[in-house]
Amino acid sequence: MKFTPRLPAENVNVSKTHPLVEFAWLVGGLVLLCLLVFGGLGLAVDLVVDHVSLPVQKQLGDMVLKRMPTKDEAALQKRLDALLAALPADSPLRRQSFRVLLAEIPEVNAVALPGNTIVVFAGLLREVTSENELAMVLAHELGHFAHRDHLRRLGRGLAVTVLAVMLFGENSDITDLVSSLFLPWQAGYSRRQESAADRFALELLVARYGHAAGATDLFARLVRQGGRRPPRLLASHPWPEQRIGQIEVWIATEQLPTGFRQPLGADLRRLAAAVSLEPESVSSSLADGTRH
């Protein structure tokens, strides 16, 4: 009788499933596990951030400020105080004190840091053309404080990074893969935060000036200027066209009035002209704050 070799019908070491199918199941399982872990961490962070004391927040904010030289500017603080005075009487932000600092960084940006600190970059101060535009930016950052976005984003990023390093090591390819999988999820979460902050800013802008003029001016100017953009899936902010469209929908739906834009005060113009724009931006390393 001729011997014909064949695999046993039952063998735990030999699979009848195609290797590509098994690979797909493995990757799918890893993605599902990561999503479950990220989701759990996100919920845990959301529960914790509401109980982070202001002194702890200030310590976190000071850690960032050590890497970003800033200075107090009375002209900016005056505009922030005017916005705070326009908050509804029952707003929790009225029970807190905020400060705004100026960083001589050429990027058109602003960040909300733990500890009730807003940092306006010199590039942004040079870019705005009316007090309404500046107020929209400052109100947007106050919106992040109202929703505690700055702590949620910081907490989620830190929790995922620490967990990945603990499980897979600091220089592991799996750690890099987990971080890559985390980025689109975090970016989508960030875009929702930005949209909510825009909504808050629009309401505060109207409360401050009595109309919504200037709400989209800065975004429109950035669109005209163009420039490089990150992939849509990884973008932490909605694209300017989307922000303009959404804000205009809110204005039209609620029939908000529009009025005259208030020119920049002489103190702001002098400040914008005096600031130096350092060629080397340090903002790229500031992943902790919540940006405009």
Automatic annotation (TrEMBL):
* Cofactor names: Zn(2+)
* Domain Peptidase M48: residue ranges: 75-250
Membrane-crossing residue ranges in chain numbering? 23-49
Pfam families in the record:
Peptidase_M48
Origin superkingdom: Bacteria
Q: How is the cofactor bound?
A: Binds 1 zinc ion per subunit.
The terms describing its cellular component in GO are: membrane
GO annotation terms (biological process): proteolysis involved in protein catabolic process
Any one GO MF annotation of this record: metal ion binding
Q: What InterPro entries does UniProt report for this protein, alphabetically? A: Mito/Outer_Membr_Metalloprot, Peptidase_M48
Gene3D superfamilies (alphabetical): Metalloproteases ('zincins'), catalytic domain
| The entry's keywords | Hydrolase, Membrane, Metal-binding, Metalloprotease, Protease, Transmembrane, Transmembrane helix, Zinc
As for family, the record states: Belongs to the peptidase M48 family.
Q: Known PANTHER family for this protein?
A: METALLOENDOPEPTIDASE OMA1 (PTHR22726), METALLOENDOPEPTIDASE OMA1, MITOCHONDRIAL (PTHR22726:SF1)
Q: What is this protein called?
A: Peptidase M48-like protein
Give the source lineage, highest ranks first. Bacteria, Pseudomonadati, Thermodesulfobacteriota, Desulfuromonadia, Desulfuromonadales
